[in-house]
Predict the structure of SPW_0924 family protein.
Amino acid sequence: MRALIAAAIGLAVALALVLTISAIGAPSGHTSPKPLLTTVPGPTK
């Protein structure tokens, strides 16, 4: 029974955290116009 109560409390805390983060909204900012390099550039010709 204690495990069920602990699981319910943990679920309620997780749900409250998700709702709080979604209520605050995404942080404002901008993205870089330059693309990210995922590989090492080849030699220049």
